[in-house]
Write a sequence for this structure.
């Protein structure tokens, strides 16, 4: 196998809080292949956004490695990292907060290219901005408008155009559609998939919405309290979920069809516990109906159960 | 995808209205604020065109024959104990009072914005150091501090400017810092960092333009206070030296005559009052107009 | 047909803002029977929340106005009711649950007190003892141990807070519960818990409910009837089977379903609706969906379609005006 585009090795990010260390990302090992999409799913507070930001070094990880084509970018100095940023971009959740309200659409899209000096000629820059707006489906007449004059869907297109401006290879998408209405959400999802087909981007798609992640991802990682509990290809995960948490998560999704109306669901009790100084052992154990005494044993790494299907649960050895 | 987007775009016409326009739209709904703005504009026009209204000689020209003339058609605001034309003095006084007010605000604004942005953006030790320094400055009453600085540097227009700026800077530092801290977590700042934007560019391009609202409001309200402080300093003899017609100085010059010739102190008093009220009204109006929470 | 608990006819609501008038609800007709759960579905800005607020007359003062139409709650005419009447109705006959459980509770009052408060206002004849008992009972109903009634809201998690809010809403056994996106702010596993609880309550209490949501999955789980809103009108309404399994649909409904990634089959591309909702301050002449509609005809550009009924199923679209002419009942 060739070296993957992005690989995290034992990535950890702890936040210091007055009550102790908050384990936002705890020993996560993931791989993003070229041209593929890795979906990262989990509930609020499971550390999925922190993971995305740690990979981009928007947050400095506490320990571990982030390998880009086999090279550890956490060892890069400021200058090298600046160069590196052209290859990795991010699309944010909130199309309202992620655009500077005092800049026009063209300024926002041109800004990354100005900063990285990839294009210095004024005329060329304008052309590139036009081209990008065309790519993401924004009419040229919006060039001089401000973001607050546009609706959520168009704003998110600006966010996508900005991420594309530096022609990155890898894009972290942090809940890019969850603030949008379904019909607009579908437009943006289609756009992102088209762009991937054309340009061969690799995505890390962070979301809490399983139906969206199923639609767009080739591989899915399920996170719970900072840890990755299951990784598998999309098809495998949905047809054969192994970890009890994944099962519960899949079962909890309300499906817009009457076939499932009277199906008895297995609703997991309780809520996510605090990620501050978590106890050793399986973090899901307190809510898990299969929990046994061995669940508290500290070793909980991912094990390959089926081909390319990794689970961290004592039920599978 | 592009087709869909373009076709819909051609049909839906967006409403275009620049931010400045919508601020003005909300501002003009407040009648008092508009009145304040008109007053202040008139005052500024008077200050700028003072030489066209009365020549400067009239301000200093003394005449024993024309002492204590009550307001009349010849001397609109009367004359003082040296027979100087009060109308000319008040008109020219606007120049001193307003330019000192505006000048000191501009200086403390620039300085405060820079220091506050640095303090808020970097946080940590830099922030604590700057803020403790500002706390010390804030602990001294504005007037007292201005008195100390003028006393140390000596009387004069320039020193007064320095004194006033130094005493208002901490306010701006605080307000800019807190705005910057609340903005720092915004995703567009993070987006800027994600494409490798340097700290300096982030501050001046992404942070400062977005904190301009609260700064402007603070500036207009502080300006009113500054005009008042300058007049008080002049009144106690630490501001603009006496032959020059600053409003506070005029008040001070005539305080002995207050009992017999009340117009000598009332008129400069009203001049100060009008300018301070105008600035306060504008400040209130701007605060409402710039408050993003009221925006739709 | 059961007893009618709510009847809205030709409701129009307008918001006056600095810049323009916003027509949020434009000719809404809606009927609700006793014990029925109606899902009110639509995108942001479709007027769902405004419609619910009009029922309680809670539109923002001096901004929101009911300009036309009638709202009847049982035999009470809401439009002409005084403020004093409305205060008696709110919380007693009709209660509302808001979207955000984090901000809907008063942080400085114990949750027991907050539940007791509604009872004290509306059930004047209840003794202190009875109120206490009722609080315990209602907490039990929503699955919170009564030992926790002296806790403050910040001691509860999001899902538990939403249960408390539902408990407050149900305390006086209202005839009608308006739930505005009650699970949107919750995680899926917590949402499943709350939905399960609401389902149980519905069966137990026989309360009518209007569930406002944009999530068709939630609707499929607990609603009996569904109304699809678009630009301030109900464009399709019917029993849950009509909407989810019926043969005929409004083009917007089709688009809405096409936009949701399907969990059960492989689909490469979604089929979204092009464009976006018309600006509510400048509503177009004719059908409000015409600009996004693939089957737009000449008549759609000129006339707003009539409501076409097919038994329990209503579609407001010119396509069905003619097709079902013979079957039209109304």
């Amino acid at each position: 196998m060739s070296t993957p585009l992005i690989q995290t090795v034992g990535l950890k990010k702890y936040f210091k809080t007055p009550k102790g260390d908050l384990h936002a990302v705890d020993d996560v090992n993931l791989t993003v292949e070229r041209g593929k999409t890795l979906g990262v799913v989990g509930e609020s507070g499971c550390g999925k956004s922190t993971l995305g930001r740690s990979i981009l070094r928007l947050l400095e990880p506490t320990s571990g490695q982030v390998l880009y084509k086999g090279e550890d970018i956490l060892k890069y100095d400021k200058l090298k990292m600046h160069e590196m940023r052209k290859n990795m971009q991010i699309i944010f959740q909130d199309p309202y907060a992620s655009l500077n309200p005092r800049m026009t659409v063209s300024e926002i899209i041109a800004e990354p290219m100005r900063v990285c000096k990839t294009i210095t000629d004024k005329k060329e820059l304008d052309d590139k901005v036009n081209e990008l707006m065309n790519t993401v489906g924004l009419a040229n007449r919006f060039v001089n408008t401000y973001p607050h004059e546009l609706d959520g869907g168009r704003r998110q297109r600006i966010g996508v155009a900005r991420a594309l401006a530096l022609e990155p290879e890898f894009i972290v998408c942090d809940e890019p559609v969850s603030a949008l209405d379904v019909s607009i959400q579908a437009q943006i999802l289609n756009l992102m998939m088209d762009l991937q087909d054309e340009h061969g981007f690799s995505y890390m798609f962070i979301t809490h919405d399983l139906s969206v992640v199923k639609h767009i991802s080739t591989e899915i990682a399920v996170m719970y309290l900072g840890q990755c509990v299951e990784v598998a290809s999309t098809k495998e995960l949905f047809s054969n979920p192994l970890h009890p948490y994944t099962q519960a998560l899949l079962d909890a999704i309300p499906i817009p069809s009457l076939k499932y109306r009277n199906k008895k669901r297995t609703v997991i009790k309780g809520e996510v516990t605090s990620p501050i100084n978590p106890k050793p052992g399986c973090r899901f154990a307190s809510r898990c109906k299969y929990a046994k005494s061995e669940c508290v044993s500290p070793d909980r790494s991912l094990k390959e159960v089926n081909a390319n299907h990794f689970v961290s649960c004592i039920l599978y050895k | 995808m592009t087709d869909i987007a373009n076709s819909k775009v051609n049909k839906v016409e967006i409403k275009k209205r620049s931010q400045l326009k919508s601020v003005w739209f909300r501002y003009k709904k407040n009648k008092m604020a508009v009145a304040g703005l008109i007053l202040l504009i008139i005052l500024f026009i008077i200050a700028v065109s003072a030489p066209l209204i009365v020549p400067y000689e009239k301000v200093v020209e003394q005449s024993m024959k024309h002492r204590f003339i009550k307001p009349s058609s010849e001397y609109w605001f009367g004359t003082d104990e040296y027979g100087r034309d009060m109308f000319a003095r008040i008109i020219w006084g606007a120049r001193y009072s307003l330019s000192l007010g505006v000048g000191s605000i501009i200086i403390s604004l620039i300085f405060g914005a820079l220091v506050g942005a640095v303090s808020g953006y970097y946080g940590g030790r830099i922030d604590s150091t700057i803020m403790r320094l500002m706390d010390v400055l804030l602990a001294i009453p504005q007037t007292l501090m201005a008195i100390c600085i003028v006393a140390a540097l000596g009387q004069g227009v320039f020193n007064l400017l320095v004194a006033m700026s130094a005493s208002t800077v901490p306010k701006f530092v605080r307000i800019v810092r807190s705005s910057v801290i609340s903005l720092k977590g915004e995703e567009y700042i993070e987006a800027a960092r994600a494409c490798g934007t340097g700290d300096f560019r982030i501050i001046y391009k992404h942070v400062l333009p977005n904190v301009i609202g609260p700064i402007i409001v603070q500036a207009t309200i502080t300006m009113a206070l500054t005009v008042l402080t300058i007049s008080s300093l002049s009144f106690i003899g630490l501001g603009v030296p006496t032959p020059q017609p600053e409003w506070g100085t005029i008040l001070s010059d005539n305080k002995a005559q207050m009992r017999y010739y009340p117009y000598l102190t009332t008129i400069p008093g009203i001049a100060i009052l009008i300018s301070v009220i105008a600035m306060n009204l504008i400040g209130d109006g701007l605060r409402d107009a710039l408050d993003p929470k009221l925006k739709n | 047909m059961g007893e009618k608990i709510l009847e809205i006819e030709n409701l129009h609501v307008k918001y006056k803002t600095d810049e323009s008038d916003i027509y949020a609800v434009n000719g809404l007709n809606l009927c609700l029977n006793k014990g029925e759960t109606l899902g009110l579905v639509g995108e942001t800005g479709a007027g769902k929340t405004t419609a619910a607020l009009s029922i309680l007359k809670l539109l923002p003062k001096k901004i929101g106005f009911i300009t036309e139409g009638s709202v009847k709650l049982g035999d009470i005419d809401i439009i002409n009711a005084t403020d004093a009447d409305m205060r008696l109705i709110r919380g007693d006959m009709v209660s509302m649950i808001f979207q955000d459980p984090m901000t809907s509770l008063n942080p400085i009052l114990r949750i027991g007190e907050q539940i007791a408060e509604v009872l004290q206002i509306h059930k004047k004849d209840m003794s202190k003892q009875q109120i206490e008992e009722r609080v315990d009972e209602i907490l039990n109903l929503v699955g919170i141990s009564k030992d926790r009634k002296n806790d403050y809201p910040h001691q509860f998690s999001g899902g538990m807070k939403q249960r408390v809010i539902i408990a407050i809403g149900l305390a006086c056994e209202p005839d009608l519960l308006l739930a505005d996106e009650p699970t949107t702010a919750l995680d899926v596993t917590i949402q499943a818990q709350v939905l399960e609880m609401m389902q149980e309550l519905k069966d137990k209490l026989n309360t009518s409910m209007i569930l406002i949501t944009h999530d068709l999955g939630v609707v499929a789980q607990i609603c009996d009837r569904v109304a699809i809103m678009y630009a301030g009108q109900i464009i399709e309404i019917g029993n849950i089977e009509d909407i989810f399994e019926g043969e005929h649909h409004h083009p917007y409904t089709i688009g809405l379903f096409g936009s949701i990634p399907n969990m059960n089959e492989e689909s490469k591309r979604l089929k979204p609706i092009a464009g976006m909702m018309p600006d509510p301050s400048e509503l177009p002449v004719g059908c409000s969906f015409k600009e996004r509609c693939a089957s737009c005809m000449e008549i759609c550009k000129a006339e707003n379609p009539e409501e076409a009924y097919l038994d329990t199923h209503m579609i407001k679209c010119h396509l069905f005006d003619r097709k079902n002419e013979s079957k039209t009942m109304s």
